[in-house]
From TrEMBL:
Protein name in the entry: Putative tricarboxylic transport membrane protein
CDD domains: PBP2_Bug_TTT
Top-level taxon of origin: Bacteria
Region annotation Disordered: where it falls in the sequence: 1-20
Family: Belongs to the UPF0065 (bug) family.
Taxonomic placement: Bacteria, Bacillati, Actinomycetota, Actinomycetes, Micrococcales
Length: 344
């Protein structure tokens, strides 16, 4: 729901039916609840972390609700750091809303607090572009890219499309007649990238948004859509059970342990990865940034973290130091172009 601009001419009020009032109350209540969580969490972080050393007290902010990808990264990192004595008191704070930009905005107000880390990644960068948020990654101190997670292109097991080329050929013939879905905004970026590689105007594509991977799979299985892009970890069970057919892995090169040909191997040069990163607040010193980077690298070197990487089918792609900023700039340009191609 958009909030009218202050001072803009407004239409005369219309009487609301009871059902409309109840719906409006739920929407307003949900918005207030999200904002209240963000404000409360921000306050607790500000007071708890004041003057604390990173090895005695560390807060990991997941810019989404519990159970999602960002939350998983934060909690695996928390458990790893606790198990190896890397930080004595590690807490995870969930701060959902607006694709992660609410958490990013709050993070920008923690200037100089070197014992707070924000989990982010492709989705957060995309959200700052999609929503035109005031807060961007320029308002924090990006420290490290941790790993990449790859999308997979899937169709129902009884689909007539046996290969990615079969699917693309039908899509090229009538772009609007091959409806797609995905579990999030990143998946739509992958579909857009594939459309461009296939010479299809993304604006002509039928893309039906799903709220998460489970809903996307349901849309495939009930015939609402014919194809989907989604994270490999979210689809592996359905692929292994034979309910879905995997046509392509969206990765730069084949991944050991994943027996799915890449889109690039099949002639479609799409390699957009769902990477994850960690950032500290702005205003920390160079020594503090170095100490935090060392803590991150020590965490990634533990057996516990290695186990998590294997368990979630992540591909380690560690970027730190002066290599982080050029990487983010390149990804910003790439994702901005995809949104422009979608007409957004």
């Amino acid at each position: 729901m958009e909030t009218p601009l202050s001072g803009a001419p407004q239409p005369p009020p219309q009487p609301e039916r009871p059902a409309q009032k109840r719906t409006l109350s739920r929407v307003i209540g949900g918005t207030i609840a999200v904002l209240a969580i963000g404000v409360a969490s921000f306050g607790s972080i500000s007071s708890a972390n004041a003057g604390q050393d990173i090895h005695s007290s560390l807060t990991l902010i997941a810019p989404a609700a519990a159970g999602g990808g960002w939350d998983t990264v934060a909690r695996e990192m928390q458990q790893t750091q606790r198990a190896n004595g890397l930080a004595a008191n590690v807490q995870v704070v969930n701060m959902p809303g607006a694709g992660g930009t609410i958490a990013l905005g709050n993070m920008s107000r923690l200037e100089g607090r070197a014992n707070t880390l924000l989990v982010g990644g492709t989705g957060l960068l995309a959200a700052t572009i999609q929503y035109g948020s005031d807060a961007t990654l320029d308002d924090v101190t990006p420290l490290a890219v941790l790993f990449e997670e790859y999308d997979v292109i899937v169709v129902p097991a009884d689909s007539p499309y046996e290969t990615l080329s079969d699917l693309v050929a039908a899509w090229q013939e009538n772009p609007g007649a091959v409806p797609w879905t995905g579990g999030g905004s990143f998946d739509q970026l992958v579909v857009t990238d594939l459309a461009l590689a296939a010479g299809i105007n993304p604006v002509d594509t039928t893309y039906i948004s799903s709220d998460g991977g489970g809903e996307a799979v349901a849309a495939l299985l009930n015939g609402t859509v014919q194809a989907a892009a989604g994270g490999y970890p979210d689809n592996i069970d359905q692929i292994q059970s034979g309910r879905l057919r995997a046509l392509a892995l969206v990765a730069e090169e084949p991944v050991p342990g994943i027996d799915i040909p890449t889109a690039r191997e099949q002639g479609f040069d799409i390699t957009l990865a769902n990477w994850r990163m960690l950032a500290a607040p702005a205003g920390i010193t160079g020594d503090e940034a170095g100490e935090l980077t060392e803590l991150i690298e020590d965490t990634l070197a533990t057996p516990e973290w290695t186990s998590a990487v294997e368990r979630y089918y992540w591909t380690e792609q560690v970027i730190t130091g002066t290599d982080v900023a050029p990487f983010l700039a390149q990804e910003h340009t790439r994702i901005t172009r995809l949104y422009e191609e979608m007409g957004q």
